[in-house]
Design brief:
mainly alpha; 2 strands; about 55% helix
Length: about 200
């Protein structure tokens, strides 16, 4: 019983911290203070967040995989040299769309540029949290959770370990967000409040 109460109390504290973060963002807006892109995205739905990063980074000009065999990713659409990743917009419907093992069970349409968006690692994490928070697919509540967990572990290495030990493409991705630690904590409290960790 004590363990249940302790876990419930911890969950409530995480939810309160997340709500305090949202309140702080609204205060900044009322005072005409600059807010970060992550703070903007925290106030948006999943669809609005997707539109936001599309406008920020532009459209993806090709499919994620070269063809419907799902054997080779398309190197022509990658922007790792800019510290950007690709998020599958349809991951609110199906998990693991960047993994051939899972992708081949879904329409190739999910891999086309119209269903992809560029984002940095922290934005990618927040998009997966939005999938969990604004689940559009109540029959598959686990969609978004595994992606959020995987990205969280990558972020934890960046913010708690030495990100500059990574190979070049991951190092660039880490450097792009390294000084956004306060944004990381805001996402972390949302992550904890959603209890998406397994």
């Amino acid at each position: 019983m004590m363990k249940f109460l302790w876990n419930s109390n911890r969950k409530c504290n995480n939810i309160l911290k997340h709500l305090q973060d949202i309140h702080t963002i609204f205060d900044k807006l009322q005072q005409d203070q600059k807010i970060t892109d992550i703070e903007i995205m925290m106030l948006l739905t999943y669809d609005q967040s997707v539109t936001f990063v599309k406008q920020k980074y532009g459209l993806v000009s090709g499919s994620y995989f070269m063809d419907a065999s799902f054997t080779q990713t398309n190197p022509n659409i990658k922007k790792t040299s800019e510290g950007l990743e690709i998020h599958h917009i349809k991951e609110y419907q199906a998990r693991g769309l960047s993994n051939p093992k899972y992708a081949k069970h879904h329409p190739f349409e999910y891999q086309k540029g119209i269903n992809l968006v560029y984002c940095n690692l922290l934005e990618h994490f927040l998009l997966h949290l939005k999938i969990c928070d604004y689940s559009k697919n109540p029959l598959h509540p686990e969609v978004g959770k595994k992606g959020a967990e995987i990205i969280f572990h990558r972020l934890a290495k960046i913010f708690f370990d030495n990100p500059f030990e990574y190979q070049k493409n991951k190092r660039i991705s880490a450097q792009k967000i390294y000084y956004q630690k306060s944004d990381f904590w805001k996402c972390f409290y949302l992550y904890q409040s959603l209890k998406v960790y397994l």
